[in-house]
Each structure stands twice: as structure tokens, then as C-alpha cells.
Design brief:
The complex is a heterodimer of chains A (93) and B (370). Chain A is of the alpha+beta class. Chain A has a domain at 4-67. Helices cover 20% and strands 33% of the residues of chain A. Chain A has helices at residues 26-30, 76-89; strands at residues 4-7, 17-21, 37-41, 48-53, 56-61, 66-70. Chain A has a six-stranded antiparallel sheet. In chain A, a hairpin with a 6-residue loop joins strand 3 and strand 4 (48-53). Chain B is an alpha/beta fold and 370 residues long. Chain B has two domains: 12-260, Aspartate Aminotransferase, domain 2 (3-Layer(aba) Sandwich); 265-366, Aspartate Aminotransferase, domain 1, CATH 3.90.1150.10. Chain B has helices at residues 12-23, 39-51, 65-75, 92-103, 121-131, 151-160, 180-183, 245-260, 265-281, 306-315, 331-334, 352-366, and strands spanning 59-62, 83-87, 107-111, 135-139, 164-168, 187-191, 203-207, 285-286, 296-300, 322-324, 341-345. In chain B, strands 1-7-6-5-4-2-3 form a seven-stranded mixed sheet, sandwiched between helices. In chain B, strands 8-9-11-10 form a four-stranded antiparallel sheet, with helices on one face. In chain B, helix 1 packs antiparallel against helix 8 (245-260) and helix 3 (65-75) packs parallel to helix 4 (92-103). The model of chain B has no long low-confidence stretch (mean pLDDT 96). Classes of the chains: A alpha+beta (93), B alpha/beta (370). Chains A and B meet through strand 5 of A and helix 10, strand 10 and helix 12 of B.
Chain lengths: 93, 370
């Protein structure tokens, strides 16, 4: 699927947080994340989700098309490349 | 809730003034004369009252506080071996110029602040006696906790030790009284886009009469073009290049609006107090300065990372706030928040309903089981 990626500028030391705008909502994205540890939390005004696989964790609002990834310190460039390759190779339904 | 970064909303006159300035002939077309309207001169005159100074011309106008601090720090006559005293509460706009000065042989001493981000007067007095600094640099209020420093006491100690004082009033001008002449402050940097309610791209530095700074930036001044150096008189001495006239029209409108609509400090303090009390009741860790403070507060939610909490408050509840180190990394250890904080900062336009919404959102966060 096509995506638009931009680094999130914040004030944390060593931040490696990126946002991805996708053609699907967070809720729809979850269907593609087979084998990931998925959690939804509906207690908030706009419910949220997180999906974890190894060191990689995706978070976002279920009804929104923007997800956020805070890459781990170790091997973050590899993890970023891995996620972006997976997104590019995944066909949005 | 992010007014300590950039205040919003602004009085409508601010945007109207910027639009008007961009829609009409630039002021420099006329170049002086009785018919000329000099927006920078008007701003200086309005600012003089807020800064508590008599001579408006001693204020140089530029892009922001960082510009003013750089002018002051790099322009002040320091030589290798001289000492500068500062605090852990300072912004990177102070810290980074000082790191550069250290590389040039200037000694920089930094004193810690208390657990609420305030400079302890006894520590300051001891430090100025021990280190005998030539220059002291100090923030009027912490941009992380809102704690206001007692400048009259701290300035007196600096003066007794023979030091000049540069004060950063970025977080206070337009919010609480500033009295530079009364406090005998030698230089002060300020910005227009926070509690002065003006546009970004405005700010500057006050320099007391008799103190000569070496211009950090040189160039055209529109007058005295035959000189090879910057004109000696203030403010021209520090003002090279074309000024940000549209934004200064906006700042002028804001300053006039502020003069006509004095801030109800007590009301703002009570609102900030209600917010901090509410957060404390919800079990949050909140930095609550004892004594004077700006409408800024830092907190964390136990068991939830700062980033997760902020993402939910913003993403799920549209609460605009700031997280992290807030460009003041040295303060975090002193206040026991090494990983940073979530910062909320109110303005005169913050409503009771907005405070209630924040507390309801944080309550959901605390009860979410995240």
C-alpha cells in the first residue's frame, strides 16, 4: 500500500518516531497484521490500538489513517526498512 | 494548552494587522519624516512599559528570544578565562551558545535548581561569591515548571559580586510583571509569540545604557551607509537587515490590545491551581511550585509512558500539549523527571470547560488499564 512518512519532531532524547499516513484506517490495518500482538482500547473518546511484533510497535487511533511508530534504539534503521518494505508489498484491499 | 510554546488564540486584531501590513505599501518606502509610521519604533515604545525601562531605544528588535540571547551572549565582552554563571533551568537558547563559549575558553558554571525548578537564592548568592562571574544568565521563570525566580534578590546578589545580569523573560513578559530598571538588570531577551500574544518571528533584546555589545550580526541599516561598521547608537547597533515588518504590525496590535485588556493574573493562577489539583487527585505526579508561578505545569501519569499518554491526550481528545525535555534538558534531573514531562500551559483565553476536558481525558487515561 502507498504511504506517506514523516519524522515526528519532539523533544525527547534520541527520538526515532515516525508517522505513516496510510490508505486504510487503523482498524482496517489490523486485518493485515496477522501474527502480531494486537491490543485495542475502547475506553477513550477515540479508541486506540497497538500492534507489536518483536521490537517493532505500531500505535494509532482505530478510526484514523495515521499510525505512529517509535523505532527501538538498536537496529532502528533495519526495522524502519523492514516495516516500509512490508507496507509497500502489502496490497490495500 | 501549549501557550508556553506559542500562544493561541490571539486577539483577532493581530491577524488583521499582519494582513493589512502585507496588503499595503511597506513602511520603508518613505524612509522617515513626520508622515512616516515606524512600526518598530511604536513597538519599542509599547514594550518599554512592559519591560519596565525608560529608554525604548535600548531595545533591539529581531526574530525571537534566541536571536536576542545570541546577541547578548556572543556580543557581551567576554575573554578566555572569564566566568559565566547560569542555572539548570535554562533553555537551549542559553545553553547552546554557552557550550560554544566554553570551547573558546570561557568558564561556565551551572547551579542546580530546587525540585520545582526554582533557583535557590542561597545557592545563587554562594555561587556568585565563589565563582565571581563576569556575567550571570538566568531565566525569569522555568519553561518546564512555571516556577518564577525572585529576580530582585538574585540580581542584587549578582550586582554585589560585580557581575552583569542577562535575564530571559521569554516565559514571563506579558504574563507577570517585569521591572528591568528597578531590578538593575543589564540585558534581557524576550519573545513576541508567547504571552505578548504576537506572531512568531518577533522578539529581541534590551541592553542597558552604557553597556556596549559587539554586534553578533552585521549588515545594512538603511542609514549611515558610509560606515564600515555598525552604527554605535542603539538600537541600530544590533539591528542589521530588513526587519519582519508584517509580524511586527501584528505584535504592535497585540501590545495595544494587552494594554487595553489587562491580564487577570489571579484568575489565571486559580485556573492553573484547579488543573494541578485535579491532576494530583487523579494520582498524577505534578510539579507544583510553592510561590509565584506562570500558568505552566508539568506532570506524568504513573504507569503510562509520557509519549503514550500524550499521544492519547492529543489523538483521542484533541488536547494540544508538549512532551519531552522542552529544550531545557538540564532541569530534568533536578526536578526528578529524567525522562521528560507532559507540559500544559494555559493562557488568558483558557476556559473552565477546557480544564474540565483535560481532567476528564486524564481520568480516562488513568482508568484505562494501559
Amino acid at each position: 500500500m502507498k504511504y506517506r512518512c514523516k519524522k515526528v519532531e519532539n523533544c525527547f532524547a534520541g527520538a526515532r518516531t515516525y508517522e505513516y499516513e496510510l490508505p486504510v484506517t487503523g482498524q482496517e490495518l489490523l486485518a493485515y497484521l496477522k501474527g502480531w500482538d494486537i491490543r485495542e482500547n475502547h475506553k477513550f473518546r477515540r479508541p486506540v490500538f497497538s500492534a507489536k511484533q518483536g521490537a517493532l510497535e505500531i500505535k494509532g487511533i482505530l478510526a484514523a489513517c495515521v499510525i505512529k511508530v517509535n523505532y527501538p534504539a538498536a537496529g532502528w534503521e533495519y526495522e524502519k526498512e523492514r516495516l516500509e518494505r512490508w507496507l509497500a508489498e502489502t496490497e490495500a484491499q | 494548552m501549549n501557550n508556553a510554546a506559542t500562544s493561541w488564540p490571539k486577539p483577532p486584531q493581530v491577524a488583521e494587522a499582519v494582513f493589512e501590513a502585507l496588503s499595503t505599501m511597506p513602511g520603508e518606502t518613505n524612509r522617515g519624516g513626520v508622515a512616516d509610521f515606524d512600526v518598530f519604533e511604536e513597538v519599542r515604545t509599547e514594550l518599554a512599559g512592559l519591560l519596565g525601562i525608560d529608554a525604548p531605544c535600548q531595545t533591539a528588535l529581531g526574530a525571537n528570544s534566541t536571536w536576542g540571547l545570541n546577541q547578548a551572549i556572543f556580543g557581551y565582552p567576554l575573554k578566555p578565562g572569564d566566568t559565566v554563571l547560569t542555572t539548570h533551568a535554562e533553555h537551549n537558547a542559553v545553553l547552546r551558545p554557552l557550550y560554544m563559549l566554553e570551547q573558546k575558553g570561557i568558564q561556565v558554571k551551572r547551579i542546580s535548581v530546587d525540585e520545582t525548578g526554582r533557583v535557590r537564592p542561597e545557592d545563587w548568592a554562594e555561587a556568585v561569591k565563589i565563582y565571581r562571574p563576569k556575567l550571570c544568565i538566568l531565566t525569569h521563570a522555568s519553561n518546564v515548571t512555571g516556577a518564577v525566580n525572585d529576580i530582585s534578590v538574585l540580581a542584587e546578589a549578582a550586582k554585589e559580586a560585580g557581575a552583569d545580569l542577562l535575564l530571559d523573560v521569554s516565559q514571563t513578559l506579558g504574563c507577570i510583571p517585569v521591572r528591568l530598571s528597578e531590578w538593575k538588570v543589564d540585558m534581557a531577551a524576550f519573545t513576541g509569540h508567547k504571552y505578548l500574544l504576537g506572531p512568531q518571528g518577533t522578539g529581541g533584546v534590551y541592553v542597558r545604557e552604557g553597556l556596549h555589545l559587539h554586534p553578533h550580526m552585521v549588515g545594512g541599516t538603511g542609514v549611515k551607509s558610509d560606515l564600515k561598521e555598525m552604527p554605535e547608537e542603539m538600537p541600530l547597533h544590533l539591528e542589521a537587515g530588513t526587519g519582519n515588518e508584517p509580524s511586527y504590525h501584528g505584535l504592535l496590535a497585540a501590545l495595544r490590545w494587552i494594554r487595553q485588556h489587562p491580564l487577570d493574573e489571579k484568575d489565571l493562577q486559580e485556573q492553573t491551581g484547579r488543573l494541578s489539583e485535579g491532576l494530583l487527585k487523579l494520582g498524577c505526579r505534578v510539579i507544583v511550585p510553592d510561590g509565584p508561578s506562570t500558568p505552566v505545569l508539568s506532570f506524568t501519569v504513573p504507569g503510562i509512558s509520557i509519549q503514550d499518554a500524550a499521544d492519547i491526550l492529543t489523538g483521542s481528545y484533541d488536547i494540544i500539549l508538549r512532551t519531552g525535555l522542552h529544550c531545557a534538558p538540564d532541569i530534568m534531573e533536578d526536578i526528578g523527571m529524567q525522562g521528560g514531562t507532559i507540559r500544559l500551559s494555559l493562557s488568558r483565553f483558557t476556559t473552565e470547560e477546557e480544564i474540565e476536558q483535560v481532567l476528564l481525558a486524564v481520568r480516562d487515561l488513568v482508568e484505562s488499564g494501559l
